[in-house]
Design a protein that fits this description.
With about 280 residues, this protein is of the alpha/beta class. The protein is built from ten helices and twelve strands. The protein has two domains: about 150 residues, D-Maltodextrin-Binding Protein, domain 2, CATH 3.40.190.10; about 110 residues, D-Maltodextrin-Binding Protein, domain 2. It is globular. The chain starts with 8 loop residues before the first helix and ends in a 15-residue tail after the last helix.
């Protein structure tokens, strides 16, 4: 990420909302010591937490409060301000980028099962049916745009410059575009809606699941590596707090693994390394 003092558009869009967000959270959320306040974006992570993690935390005396957000920086801002205790919506690369741009000091404490990004289409039934000059929407933020470009490179539709890091690739690193694809950046949450107008959309897994898309419907799924597996994030000062350790223990428990593997709706997710084979 550039070291400019001015945050990029994808981070600045949410800034005007923070004041109202703070007020609403103060009104809605209790500060009781055993209240655990957890933030989510649209997607599957709240369902997994509600059904697989919360029951374990309740046995330890916690009362879980859920807070929903609609834009990417908001959950991190809320953790930084102490309005919520943890959030579950992002991978560590995105977390590091927002820490740098916004001056936050958040850390990941545990990876969580994560659906991969994929190429989806309402117009075409296979990759072979996609014409030259097709329009492809992809996330506007640099970290997730890199994921989309890596998928396009994997299917041979673009080639990337030699030596470029797959974690930081951008449109500037496209060496050739033999299929003459029209690449259209947009807010990642809008990717599923763009399927009505575009030939294809590179959709992050959480937004795909939230919009009703099935991973099995993707024309191509990414080969997800660990940096893109989502995490539970907390303030650095809470990294060793009891609630953080209890969340980690719940995710890493045999009970959660058994619960997660038993539900076919989560088939195809990238599982954290602590899942037993």
């Amino acid at each position: 990420m550039p070291s400019s003092s001015r945050a990029p558009l994808w981070l600045r869009r949410s800034a005007p909302l923070f004041g109202g967000l703070a007020l609403s959270l103060v009104l809605q959320v209790s500060a009781h010591a055993d209240d655990l306040r957890v933030g989510f974006m649209p997607g599957p992570y709240r369902d997994a937490f509600t059904n697989g993690i919360e029951p374990q935390l309740k046995k330890l005396g916690y009362s879980v409060k859920y807070v929903e957000f609609s834009q990417g920086v908001q959950p991190n801002d809320a953790v930084e301000r102490g309005q919520i205790d943890a959030n579950i919506f992002q991978h560590s690369l995105y977390l590091n980028a927002t820490n740098k741009q916004q001056g936050f000091d958040l850390v990941p404490v545990v990876h969580v099962p994560t659906p991969p990004m994929g190429l989806y289409s309402q117009r075409h039934k296979s990759l072979a049916a996609v014409p030259d000059g097709a329009t492809v929407t992809l996330p506007a933020d640099p970290v997730n745009a890199a994921r989309a470009l890596n998928i396009l490179a994997a299917v041979g539709w673009v080639t990337l410059k030699p030596g470029v890091s797959p974690l930081s690739v951008s449109e500037r690193d496209v060496a050739s575009n033999p299929k003459r694809l029209k690449l259209v950046p947009l807010d990642a949450a809008q990717a599923p809606r763009s399927l009505a107008d575009a030939d294809l959309a590179a959709v992050q897994g959480n937004f795909a699941v939230a919009s009703g898309l099935k991973l099995t419907e993707a024309l191509k799924l990414e080969d997800m590596t660990l940096p893109y597996v989502n995490v539970v994030a907390v303030k650095r000062s809470n990294e060793n707090a009891r609630f953080a350790k209890d969340i980690v223990a719940a995710y890493q428990s045999p009970e959660f693994q058994k619960f997660f593997r038993a539900n076919p709706v989560w088939a195809g997710y990238r599982l954290p390394d602590y899942f037993s084979q």
